[in-house]
Design a protein that fits this description.
- With about 170 residues, this protein is α+β, with helices and mostly antiparallel strands.
- Helix content is about 50%, strand content about 10%.
- It contains seven helices and four strands; from the N terminus they run H-H-E-E-E-E-H-H-H-H-H.
- The chain has helices at about 5-15, 15-25, 65-70, 75-90, 95-110, 120-125, 140-155, and strands at about 30-35, 40-45, 55, 60-65.
- The chain has a four-stranded mixed beta sheet, with helices on both faces.
- Strand 1 and strand 2 form a beta hairpin.
- Helix 1 crosses helix 4 (about 75-90).
- The longest helix is centred in the last third of the chain and has 17 residues, at about 140-155.
- It is elongated, with a radius of gyration of 21 Å.
């Protein structure tokens, strides 16, 4: 095992994220087997959430598929291994709210939770099956609304005064 993988394994053991992954595996009756570089591979994950075909908790990588699929997709394994390293960098479970915040930002910017998500981009969008989507120009609309609101205060009218609403 490479030194970096050993550090990741120890860090995720100490920060308890791997223990939480193993608990999730036990509660969901997901079979876990040793994988490469100190990772643990959970196969045939059945609960509906999360919606992803693969996801990581600590050093445990969950797949909805069998081991043959995992072995046929080294790119996806590499992507999920990068998430495992991100757990170590985030000191464990703080990864989850940080990831959620980045997913919300990406959803707002592109309409997709992965395209502009820092963690997905860092793990390799294409390896994880994500596409890079263009951003949606939301800031000009927000700026125009705020400008209109400010001008309305200066003139003593409300922003929607005189507008007909259905």
């Amino acid at each position: 095992m490479r030194a970096a993988a050993r550090v990741r394994q120890v860090a995720n053991a100490l920060n308890a994220s791997t223990a939480v992954g193993l608990l999730l595996a036990a509660l969901s009756r997901t079979a876990v087997e040793p994988g490469p570089e100190g990772l643990l591979l959970g196969t045939n994950y059945r609960p509906k959430l999360p919606l992803a075909g693969a996801f990581t908790v600590g050093n445990v990588i969950f797949y909805r598929a069998e081991r043959d699929f995992i072995d046929s997709r080294p790119d996806l394994l590499r992507h999920e291994a990068a998430h495992s390293t991100q757990y170590a960098w985030c000191l464990g479970l703080p990864f989850l709210p940080l990831y959620a915040g980045c997913a919300v930002f990406s959803l707002w910017r592109t309409g997709d939770p992965g395209s502009r998500n820092f963690f997905e981009r860092n793990a390799g969008l294409a390896d994880g099956g994500y596409r890079e989507l263009p951003t949606i120009a939301r800031l000009p609309a927000l700026r125009n609304f705020l400008r209109h609101l400010t001008l309305s205060k200066a003139t003593g009218t409300t922003p929607f005064e005189g507008k007909v609403h259905p």
